[in-house]
Every structure is written in C-alpha cells, then in structure tokens.
Amino acid sequence: MDPRFQICLPFVLQQECNVYTGTSADWTNPRNFDNDPQDPGGATQCGLTHADYDEYCEAHGLPEGDVRHIGEEIGTTIYYDSYWLPFCPRLPIGLDLFCFDTRVNMGTRRMIMLLQASLGITADGAWGPQTNLRVMAIKDVPAVILDEEGRRAAVYRSFRTFGRFGGDWIRRDKEIAATAVKMVQGAIA
Q1: What is the reported pTM?
Q2: Rounded to an integer, what distance in angstroms lies between the CA atom of residue 46 and that of residue 66?
Q3: Class for the domain spanning 91-189
Q4: Residue 118 vs residues 112, 124, 181: alpha-carbon distances, Å
Q5: Residue 58 exposed, middle or buried by CB count within 10 Å (0-12, 13-18, 19+)
Q6: Can you give the residue ranges of every domain in the chain?
Q7: Residue among 64, 20, 84, 65 at smallest CA distance from 46
Q8: Cα Rg of the chain (Å, integer)
Q9: pLDDT tens digits for 76-110?
C-alpha cells in the first residue's frame, strides 16, 4: 500500500474510531460501532458503513456479514481501495489527508467538488484533465487546504442534521485541516 496512505489513515481513524470513545482504532472494540438512527450513513464500525462492507464482500465473493465484525485487514483495504484510491495519490502532501478525510466523511463527488471550487474551476464533481492540471499547478497547498476547510464547514451547515452532528463535524474539519497544514510544513511526516 501507498506509504502516504499509511501515514494518513491513522488521522482519519482517530476521527472515526476514538473521538467519542477514547479508544484506539481497535476494530474489535464494540465502542467503535455506531448506529445512530439520525445518521443517514447507518451502522458503522470505525467509520465504515454496512454498505461499504457489503460491497467489499460482494466484490470478493464473501457472504454478507455484520459490519461490527469487519476486522482491521478488511477495513484497511476498504479505506485504501474505496477512499484513498485513485485520487489521493495525485495530491500534494497534506492535501491528500484533507481530501481523504473529506471523501470518507462526505463522499467522492462532494470531495471532488470542494477541491475543484478551491482550485477555482467548475465544481462538477468529475475528476478530469482540468482538475489534474490544476492539482499539478498548486503553489500554495496550505491556502487550498484552508479554503477547503471553510467550504467543507459551509456544506456541513447546510445539512439538516447539523443541529445534532454539526459541532463534531466542525471540530473534525478544523483538526484535519490543522494536521494537513502541519504535514505541508513538515511538522508531521
């Protein structure tokens, strides 16, 4: 697996697994399971949804199972294949983490749209040649990260569930942005 993925994954898992529970990214800890009826994502274990797990099982010829039993190996593979690839390896250090976390928390299309808006191009949610060119031309990565942080917060505020989850979403947005900027500055490998 991509070494950058190995560096970035623990920061995403910190948000997904142990923010509420105070536990590590322990895939077997029942405290890392969540099924809040007001969360449209449904049942999750360390941030991965039951739908993520079903998709993996179907693709690998495995019977469907309970997401609570996903395990670290399969969970890591899902994060890598479904949320890191193919876009994050194309991004500069720091922005890779921010976009990875955005994709996990908001989905692929919205992650691409936020990036495109921060790059000053049409936010259509499709990664094409223009997006590639703009990514390769980024000169001020922290500025892009901070712009995306503000855009991501604005999207969170538009969600009907902001009253219930908004405080945590905004905290997450700020923490991931701060960590991503530290990566750009070399304070975090």
Answers
A1: 0.94
A2: 13
A3: mainly alpha
A4: 10, 13, 15
A5: exposed
A6: 1-85, 91-189
A7: 20
A8: 16
A9: 999 999 999 999 999 999 999 999 999 999 999 99
